[in-house]
């Protein structure tokens, strides 16, 4: 068994650590290459047995699973290096939204999956989004679902939904961390509360809210109704919040979708040239 990772940045390192901690990967089965070799050295030191691959080609060679954890703009360089090493039985897993399954199938001679993780997978929580290339057998899909279920809840989606799904699942932690920060700032400013205590209260509240929505199956409306006594404090405050944020998330998704369309065009140009004819 060999599992290759290309890119040991934020998500590459997070996935390696999460899979090892979950016991679903052994360090001695993992080979990692990255442009910044100190990041790989740190992982190798932390997880004895993990191999520091000298090149992307070496990480790819004979890997049963090969994770591509680089940014979209780095795909062309990486694909050029790994293509000669890849064989039909190998599975390449791309973790970035604007690189499309059919583009990878055109350029690589192996099986392709697109799996979008989330930083919350580091806590063994949250979803991972699964999209399948046409060459994967049903055993391959089951194997990937099982692997990702060790660190997350894998959810199969259509590739055309990837942006909105990634917004919810992968960008969401940043959005809600921001909102919690604003909430805490207001508590500190209004009441002079101790910040550490306010942080702890808000974080525990968020965790409990998430558990009610998931484990207890409450809807977001039911949860609001449970807290809101008619004519009470929460009702008055929710009125303000609804007014202030009415179209905030619509605007957020408009921006992510605009940026996504730009990224798709940029990736397509970098992989196939402006006329869509070059190969890397
Ligand atoms: N940060 C997040 O929450 C999530 C990120 N993603 C996707 O994961 C991908 C990686 O994101 P991050 O890990 O946050 O970025 P990052 O910048 O932290 O990591 C990228 C790594 O790739 C390495 N790299 C760049 N070019 C390379 C090359 N030619 N060969 C080998 N290594 C190379 C860099 O040295 C860097 O360590 C992105 O496409 C992003 O969209 C997906 C889900 C969530
Ligand atoms: O590829 C993506 O869309 C992910 C979601 C968060 C950051 N990158």
TrEMBL record:
The alphabetized UniProt keywords are:
Amino-acid biosynthesis, Cytoplasm, NADP, Oxidoreductase, Proline biosynthesis
Protein localization: Cytoplasm
| Keyword Cytoplasm set for record | yes
Which Pfam families does the UniProt entry name for this protein? F420_oxidored (PF03807), P5CR_dimer (PF14748)
Boundaries of every Pyrroline-5-carboxylate reductase dimerisation domain copy: 159-259
User: Is Transmembrane one of the keywords?
Assistant: no
Q: Which GO terms describe its molecular function?
A: pyrroline-5-carboxylate reductase activity
Give residue ranges for domain Pyrroline-5-carboxylate reductase catalytic N-terminal. 2-97
Q: Which InterPro entries match?
A: 6-PGluconate_DH-like_C_sf, NAD(P)-bd_dom_sf, P5C_Rdtase_cat_N, P5CR_dimer, Pyrroline-COOH_reductase
The entry's cellular-component GO terms read: cytoplasm
Functional pathway: Amino-acid biosynthesis; L-proline biosynthesis; L-proline from L-glutamate 5-semialdehyde: step 1/1
Where does the chain bind NADP(+)? 6-11, 34
Which Gene3D superfamilies does UniProt cross-reference here? NAD(P)-binding Rossmann-like Domain, ProC C-terminal domain-like
Instruction: Give the protein's biological function.
Output: Catalyzes the reduction of 1-pyrroline-5-carboxylate (PCA) to L-proline.
Family classification? Belongs to the pyrroline-5-carboxylate reductase family.
HAMAP family annotated for this entry? Answer: P5C_reductase
In Swiss-Prot or TrEMBL terms, this protein is called Pyrroline-5-carboxylate reductase
**Species of the source:** Cohnella pontilimi
Gene symbol here is proC
């Amino acid at each position: 068994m060999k599992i290759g990772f290309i890119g040991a940045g934020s998500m590459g390192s997070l996935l390696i650590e999460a899979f090892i901690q979950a016991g679903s990967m052994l360090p001695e089965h993992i080979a990692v290459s990255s442009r910044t070799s100190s990041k790989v050295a740190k992982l190798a030191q932390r997880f004895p047995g993990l191999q520091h691959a000298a090149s992307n080609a070496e990480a790819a060679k004979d890997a049963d699973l090969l994770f591509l954890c680089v940014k979209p703009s780095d795909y062309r360089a990486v694909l050029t290096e790994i293509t000669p090493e890849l064989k039909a039985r190998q599975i390449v897993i791309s973790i970035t939204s604007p690189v499309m399954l059919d583009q990878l199938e055109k350029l690589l001679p192996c099986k392709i999956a697109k799996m979008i993780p989330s930083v919350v997978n580091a806590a063994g929580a949250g979803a991972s989004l699964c999209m399948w290339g046409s060459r994967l057998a049903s055993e391959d899909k089951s194997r990937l679902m099982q692997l990702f279920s060790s660190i997350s809840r894998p959810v199969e989606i259509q590739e055309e939904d990837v942006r909105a799904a990634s917004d919810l699942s992968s960008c969401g932690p940043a959005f809600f961390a921001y909102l919690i920060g604003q909430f805490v700032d207001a508590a500190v400013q209004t009441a002079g509360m101790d910040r550490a205590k306010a942080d702890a209260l808000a974080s525990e509240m968020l965790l409990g809210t998430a558990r009610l929505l998931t484990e207890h199956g409450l809807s977001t409306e039911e949860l609001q109704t449970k807290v809101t006594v008619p004519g009470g404090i929460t009702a008055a405050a929710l009125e303000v919040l609804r007014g202030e944020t009415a179209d905030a998330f619509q605007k957020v998704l408009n921006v992510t979708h605009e940026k996504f369309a730009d990224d798709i065009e940029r990736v397509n140009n970098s992989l196939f040239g402006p006329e869509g004819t070059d190969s890397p």
